[in-house]
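Changelog entry: the Calcium ATPase record was regenerated in this release. Current contents:
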Amino acid sequence: MEKAAIEATDERKLSGSSDLERMASPRGCINYADDVEQLPRRRTSKDERKRSADKAAKHEEAKKLKAKPGAIDFGGLDNHTANPDELFNRFDTDRTLRLRSAQVADLIKTVGRNMPTAPPSRWFRKTIRYLYGGFGSILFVAAILVFVAWKPLGEPDPAVANLALAIVLVIVWLAQAFFSFYQDFSSSRVMDSISGMLPDECIVLRDGTQQRIDGRDVVPGDMLRITLGNKLPADVRFVEVSSDARFDRSILTGETLPLLGSVDSADDNYLETACIGMAGTHCVIAKLTSAPKQGRTPLQKEIYYFIAIIVTLMLTFIVVVCAVWAGWLRQEHPDWIPVADLIVDCVSVAVAFISEGLPIAVTASLTITANIMRQNKVLCKSLNTVETLGAVNVICSDKTGTLTRNIMAVTEVLVGKEPIAAKQAADIHDEHMGLQKLADCAAVCNDAEFDASTANAAVADRKVNGDATDSAILRFAEAMKPVTEFRASFKSLIKVAFNSKNKFAINVAQKTSEVKPWLIIKGAPDILLPRCGSYITKDGHVERLEESDRQALEMQKDFWSSQDPEVVRTLRGAGIRVFMVTGDFKLTAAAIAAECGIITQSPQHTHGIANLTFDDDYLKSAGVVYDPKVSTDDIPATQSIVLSGGDLEGLDDNQWDKLCKYDEIVFARTTPEHKLRIVKELQKRDLTIGMTGDGVNDAPSLKAADVGIAMGGGSDVALEAADMVLLDSFAAIVEAVRYGRVVYDNLKKTICYLLPAGSFSQFWPVITNKLEADVLLRPPRNARKDRLVDWKLILHAYGVIGVIESVSSFAMAYWYAQRHSLYFSDLWFLPMAFGAGILLNSFSFFAILNVPPVSTPQFAHPFFLSFIYLVIAHFSQK
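Regenerated structure tokens:
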């Protein structure tokens, strides 16, 4: 269902026009640039020459405006009003061969690659965030206060120790800012390399053949073939469009209704005309995915919650210190702690609570995990996505291209009442009129085309540009006749593109040697068969279609991955339910789900919509109030249910509550709106949703899910909407879940260690700790209830680890002092400080081993006794 269009204003010229456009149906385009006077033109009439002169004057004015960065004069653009023939001549684009390779090479040298202007770096804002974000502002204020305590409050005899402390605080403040910058820089490089691995290609027609190229290599004058879900690499002018092409221009014009695509200009205003497809507008499906997710990510919420707790505790203890000083020490011991020392003490309390290493620990942990996942063919577009995946407890998976490989082949056809294997059809089609008619229809009503780069390969090995179904049908037809030559004898009159709602495609084509046009329709059997009244026999005769008959029904197999059953079992063992959400026929979806292990019940024991219905009037008359949270409905833990998209439209909240109790669910015949509703209904019931998919229809639900997961070979729209990309196969999701949980565990351990220790240097063993043995055997955490830092962790950090470190350090320090004839009574109210650095450092390492949750007991660690022996050996020598 491809056509052509002339690609319009080069993205290099209009890089400020906003985001992306997706077409609502396939067609093509021709690319144009502003410097059109450089390109050869045909001879024109006197009127045409006058009009061209006027337009040339407008272009000169436009050039003057463009002397100002970012200035664009849309009034100087005329490619939307020129007729297609004029555009072909303007860009020296051949109607048949399109652009030639030599032309493309010259244009790339002249105008450069099709790349937009890089966005501003905003380094000033980032620098402010590095310096004053998180605990940075507290460290900065603390350093200023200590400087004030040194001078002027410390006059006439300022303490050098206060100056040293202030300098140390400044160094720590700058160091944490530097590490935040370095980690941000490193993670951005990782994200850039990940973005570079995602496909961003388009199909162009050059030298008379279709070629798949990088979107950055598109040049003015290129002919593009645009299909559903493709990203427009630049503004385009349409020269042929589908009858059902629709465009949402609300982002530019304010129109709420989608506009029909058109070949002819309907408005002199460049932004209003329907014959231009701009890289800054959106189609209906893409618009659903354009809005950013609202609110903070779960990890950001947890970090802010943690900071709020620590700041509250810090301020509370500072108030207590000031109250004790003002109410007791100042009265009873007026010369012991002056104001300057009080400020230093308050700063010490504040610094003791601050986890300076937290920003580094969080970013480093996420970056390390993202790199590990990348090695496992899992690309995270955002670092925060890594942690969110660990909380997922439901995965809604698309079928085609996700659970299955989206590699289809025709295995059997039914012509009349005769089933024929696909391999046999190629041998007998010369004597079989019905097969010949089927091959003719398969060739003409088909949007797939063979790639010219594999023209000499066998049919099964040739690369095909098109969706999986059309590709399978194209190979089937090619085995019986040369499709390209046969198509050349037809001229398409009317086309209706296949879409997820109608589930059929129509092509009305005129054969050059015949008077009557052909009307060919293909689509889902449950949609078309009720409308069929006759069928073709082996001899080519038309017979009446009875209820038990079928007309040329092709049997296609979509190959599913052999790893899928094991993947589903592993995810179930990790407490994650796997649901299938697909647009396929109900029986097809149920069969694939059974093969993949998503459904374990036999068909006769699988529930349907009838199991969700109950009589509200009867319940009310019986005095029963239905509460899904306390309902005793007998739904076994392994019970399966299969529903269609139509079934979902009539469900109320109580039925959704009942549905969410099932462990095995298949949603069939779903539209993008159905998929979006499924995600939102599950989220309303406190479930954390991971959505996988690869098609345009999956994009809205990918965007709405807590974690959208796209397949690497998916459509551009799906890849942009997703938070994570699986480059290899669906099996990679197991590793993604594993490391999503690991990063949460390691962050919890890091924070538990940093709270009492507060060291920059020693959290690395924690954030890179070995995987927990039961990481995929325990249920996922509840992202809405389980906290990264809760009161249990606070008590463990301060009440257990902190007390152990403090009491042990003081005890050993006093014991060490007593051995040198400095007794405890002599130290009471002594304005001096003693420390045993190696002791506290050793107990800090002990704290690393003591942080929860660790599957292995602390005393079973091989390094534990080594640290104990180190401490004993040190003090035994004194």
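The chain has a mean pLDDT of 71.
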